[in-house]
Design a protein that fits this description.
The chain has 448 residues and is an alpha/beta fold. It has 12 helices and 19 strands. The two termini are 17 Å apart. The relative contact order is 0.16.
Length: 448
Amino acid sequence: MQTPSVAGAASGRNVVVVGTQWGDEGKGKVVDWLTDHAAGVARFQGGHNAGHTLVIKGKKTALQLIPSGIMRDGVACYIGNGVVVDPLHLLSEIERLEAAGLEVRSRLFVSESCPLILPFHVEVDRAREAQRESSGAGKIGTTGKGIGPAYEDKVARRALRVQDLKHPERFAKKLRELLALHNYVLEGFLKAGPLEFQPIFDQAMKVAEQIKPMMADCGVMIDATNRRGGNMLFEGAQGTLLDIDHGTYPYVTSSNCVAGNAAAGSGVGPDKLHYILGITKAYTTRVGSGPFPTELPIDEPGTIGHHLSTIGMERGTVTGRARRCGWLDAAALKRAVLINGVSGLCLTKLDVLDGLSEIKVAVGYELHGERIDILPLDADEIVECKPIYEIYPGWTETTAGLTQWDQLPLNARRYLQRVQDLIGAPIDMVSTGPDRDHTILLRHPYAI
């Protein structure tokens, strides 16, 4: 299939890429693939709790904070104001990419408004999870990287931000006040040890010198790119069902993962969001705690869950934890399509279903004796949901690496068409393997 013509120089076209499940849908690969038509890529939420794994010509690269566009020469990368930034991790990730031969610093721009993740955020995060576990309340399943506490400081209007790194006296004053608060919580409530001011301050001032050249007004730069006719790509982290407002609360992340936040989290208007690409696996996975209606056991060899887990290599990029696996949940996808205003879907990991005799899709649930066709908003109700499945014949042929729709087995095409009908959004792309070239394109997100 010929690649469609893409937006011309009159005005840039912008695409938002969001996960429509519980994260880990394969967004990094898709973003990398789409940057062939983009002048820049912007992350708009989350922190280094995200894990985007890219495979290019067989070589695997894991990114956490830096946008996936960094793997394309000449593409500018923006860390928007909606992202929380651990400066030490940022520099570590930069150095790792530079060691692999990539030019990073001249192409990476960090919003001065990004809240900083500092060592006490990490300590609070970990101590809280330990306390929840010991009390029997059950862990939320955070990555323990300080993401949630950093967002708490942001909304409480007390956060240290990237711009504060330019002003040592201002930084020191704010740091003393914020550290006193967190030490009070660590000692008095979480029964953990306090942290000292000087090591945190010295470390921050040291990294500040390297970060200052990358500080930028990202919204203005993105707007200027569009005015020059350049296309932008907005990259989400985590997934819709982990959204702080719309996910399976409280088993969620600490930011808005949905498409609408691409504007607020990067500093541009919502009129700049032209196409919303939702990413979904051909099945469902989840890392951490929380309800999961279609979950299957993964530990017993020979079972469907074990097949999905092993063939799909389902381990978290950031945590290394085994992902929980289950059948595709179309009722949950309906919720994600609704929330994001999805223009089209990219379905990933289709090849993991190769060889299964039958494939199930949850088309709704039985809840308290009634049928519902869309995922509820109440996590306690989701726990009570019993999935209602449709069953389709599988296929024995391989789909791995295919690049044309007509190459797919007939039953695979029927499966995809049925999913499309169930969720009410077109499947515009299909990923058939981890490499950027293992992609079937049906409609290009940057097409006019």
